[in-house]
Each structure stands twice: as structure tokens, then as C-alpha cells.
Design a protein that fits this description.
- The structure is a homodimer.
- With about 220 residues, chain A is α+β, with helices and mostly antiparallel strands.
- Chain A has two domains: about 1-140, Winged helix-like DNA-binding domain superfamily/Winged helix DNA-binding domain (Arc Repressor Mutant, subunit A); about 155-219, SH3 type barrels (Roll), CATH 2.30.30.
- Chain A has helices at about 5-15, 25-35, 35-50, 65-85, 95-105, 110-120, 165-175, 210, and strands at about 55, 60-65, 145, 155-160, 180-190, 195-200, 200-205, 215-219.
- In chain A, a hairpin with a 4-residue loop joins strand 5 (about 180-190) and strand 6 (about 195-200).
- The longest helix of chain A is centred in the middle third of the chain and has 23 residues, at about 65-85.
- Chain A is globular.
- Chains A and B meet through helix 5 and helix 6 of A and helix 5 and helix 6 of B.
- The structure holds manganese (II) ion (MN) (4 copies).
- One manganese (II) ion (MN) binds near residues 8, 101, 104 and 105 of chain B.
- The structure holds a DNA duplex (30 and 30 nucleotides).
Amino acid sequence: MPTSTVENYLKAILVRSSDEVGVVSTGALAEALGVTPGTITTMVKSMAARGLLEHQPREGVRLTPEGRAHALAVVRKHRLVETFLVQVLQMDWKEVHQEAEALEHAISDRVLLKIDAILGHPAADPHGDPIPSRKSPVLGRGKGVTLASCEPQKQLRVERILDQSAPFLEFIQKSGLMPGARVRVRERDRASGVVRCDLKEGETTLGLPEAAKIEVKVS
Amino acid sequence: MPTSTVENYLKAILVRSSDEVGVVSTGALAEALGVTPGTITTMVKSMAARGLLEHQPREGVRLTPEGRAHALAVVRKHRLVETFLVQVLQMDWKEVHQEAEALEHAISDRVLLKIDAILGHPAADPHGDPIPSRKSPVLGRGKGVTLASCEPQKQLRVERILDQSAPFLEFIQKSGLMPGARVRVRERDRASGVVRCDLKEGETTLGLPEAAKIEVKVS
DNA sequence: ATTTTGTCTTTGACGACTCAAAGAGTTTAT
DNA sequence: ATAAACTCTTTGAGTCGTCAAAGACAAAAT
Ligand SMILES: [Mn+2]
Ligand SMILES: [Mn+2]
Ligand SMILES: [Mn+2]
Ligand SMILES: [Mn+2]
């Protein structure tokens, strides 16, 4: 059984290996996990010895099928727990990511089955992130259009928030841009870097990089 | 923040310091925690240095007020989680102790508040163990009568099961002796060491040491 | 072609937790 | 009173996860 440290490493690698080859640099991991590069090299060697990943020195790291399977299981736990905390325990949307960060390592598969059943096998978590199913080794990653890239004036629906940081989620909540909300881009001004949107409850304005973190779908 | 290892040590000490002075021997802890005596001595020294307990070498260990408060908080978490797993997630009575053993270290106070509220601030867990409240530093310990010590022929109610081991819980469940059940001791034979009880659903027979693990109340 | 810069790895060290085995103290039996 | 038995502590060592600092490599600049 991997420790929770190893599980966090696996998750960080999975979520960053979006490109075709699936290689992640040790530097990116150091950044993501908040440890020094030397620590990453050490851990990565021990994880490679355990068969969880392959390490090309000075190149990067790639999950083995076993490592990938375990990483997906952890992501599944994380997202089901988040959904449970919001829907059953009525917790605040902005808090659940942090809580799930710990619970994902403590919840057994038995408990997870119960949670999944009570929730009715949801497909996405409260941030719109897809919940990997037990059988499909998929992890959809921000391929859709965003408020920064969509056509203006169309009726849209918020699909997914691509930034879990508390201040950003706070803003999303305040302005009513949570997943499921209907929204329309009134204008997008490249020069000033500003996007203006209409919502049911009034309007809201945000910067282009922020708009790019809100995935939408034509509806 | 104590690690989960330290939390388990605190809990083990609390639950074994039932006597007036509240002293627990390092040997008893080694036994309870499944580590060697030398490990206990080492850990106990570091916990004493952190102010969680006092250590009289070759005598034993006693929690400080701070250590005691933290231990009670962990026990509270454990028992509320057990209750939640049974009542909300409908998990099997015999499994929840094991699950709670991990979750008690991963659940935040915020989540605990929600759980406590949803359950309606219960006073006892599924085994009948009292749930310490946030304010009362109490931990009632098997002071009542048991099936081995009560008067025969009286109408009783099962209050508490004093053994969390899976096989024993399995037997309790099978024979219908779970907390809340009505029961009457038909006969107790010191010579053969056997207790015979009548329940709503038939009768059951058990040994004296086992009967002593079932706390009851006249009803 | 060198040098510089940026990234990655190695090395030595540490804290937390654990064990096995040897040592010290205490209690009980002879 | 001495020995035996029991319990507890010490010592030396190992694993895991981490850091700081020094070293190696590769890409980019000159
Ligand atoms: Mn985590
Ligand atoms: Mn999420
Ligand atoms: Mn525990
Ligand atoms: Mn219990």
C-alpha cells in the first residue's frame, strides 16, 4: 500500500501528464508539491524501484500502468469525497478541496462504494472536474472552450472551474459563475484584457487569464 | 499538530487510564499498540518533551491536561465517525471500528461539526460507547452491571459492548444482543461457566468472560 | 568553441517511528 | 540474602520523507 505521500506524488504526476507522451519534469513536480528538487529526485527513484513510474534522468517521469491506475483511484476518491461533502454534509464549496486532500488517503474502498451509491454515481465533482469511473482510465483535461476563447453573445453554461484556489473560488461563488450557471459573454476586449459577462443575477467582469480558467459549453 | 501516530498513543493512554491516578504502564501500551517496549519508551519521552504527558521512569505515564484534551477530541471523532458510518452510510456494524481508526486522524473539526449536527448530537456510538462532548472532559468506563454480574430474571436492556473485535461483534449481531436490545438472564451457572439468556428472537448462551463484556441496565 | 545560465542529481544530514538485542532496575521465589 | 524472573530502558540500526548545498549536465548566449 502506497503511503499518502506517494499517493500525492502519483496524483500530481497524473494531473500534469496531459500531453501525448505523458512525461512530467521533476522540476514541475517540485513546484507542484512544494518540496525541493532533490527531494523529488529521491522519491522518484524509490517510486521507480517500486514499479509505479519510469524515470529518464534529466528527462522526466512517466507513470506505469500500475502507477496510473493507482493515481486514478486517488483522483476518483478525491472528487467523490468533494461531491459528498457538498451534497450530503452541505459544506461550503470553497472548503471541500482542502478537506478532500486529506480524506482521499483515509477512506477505504468500501466506504467509497457507499458514498458513490448515495450520490447516484455522479460524473463530475462540485468544480465540474470529471470523476474517473472504476473502469475507464480517462481523465478529461480542459479541452473545451473557456470564457476567454468562446464566441461572444452565445448562451453558455459553465462546465468546469480550472483553479481550486480559495480566493478564486470565492470570486466564482460571489459572481454566480459556479458550474451549471448560464452565462453570456457581452464583450471581450483584447486591448484592455477584460471580459464582461451577463448572468441571471446581473453582470460580472474579469481578466482574460481568469476567464481562461472557466470552461463553458454552448447551451 | 500531533501526527496520527501520536494521536493513537494518546487515545490508547486515555482509554487505559481509568483508575483514579490515571497512570498507565509502558508495557500495557506496548501490548495495546502492537509495538515493542523500547518503541514506547522512545515515543513517550518525545511526547513528554512536547508536554502531552508525564513519564515516571519504571512507573508509568500520565496525560497532562493538554494531552488529555487532545485524546478526548480524538475519541470524540472516532465515535462520531462510527455513528455516521452506520447511520448515514449504512455500513455494517462490525466494519466501522476499523474504518474510524483511520478517519479519526483525517477529519477536520469543520467536517466533524457537520456530522455531529446531521446525527443530532448523539450521546453514544453504535457499540454504546459514550461520545465525549466538546465541553465535558468525561469518559465513562464500564462501571455498570453486565450480563455476568446482574440479577437473573430481571428485564434488561443492552447498553454497551466492551469488545470491538470482529468475531465478538459478529456473535453479538447474530444473537441479537446489540445495544438497545431487551434481554433477560434465565440462568447463570458458575460451575459450568455459562450464562443463558432470553431475547425477543429466541435464546442464546455464552461464557462468563464474554457475558462480562456486555453492559446492561435494568429497564 | 567557450562561457553562462538553468535544470537536475548527488551527498550528507536530520526528525519521526520502528525493531532487536543488550543492559538496568524491581519484584518474587527460594 | 541471593538468585531468578519480570519489566522497563538504552543502544545501535534501518526506513521514510525531507532539506541545503555542492556537483553534473544540457541548452542558450556570446
Ligand atoms: Mn492528498
Ligand atoms: Mn474538485
Ligand atoms: Mn487511529
Ligand atoms: Mn465504538
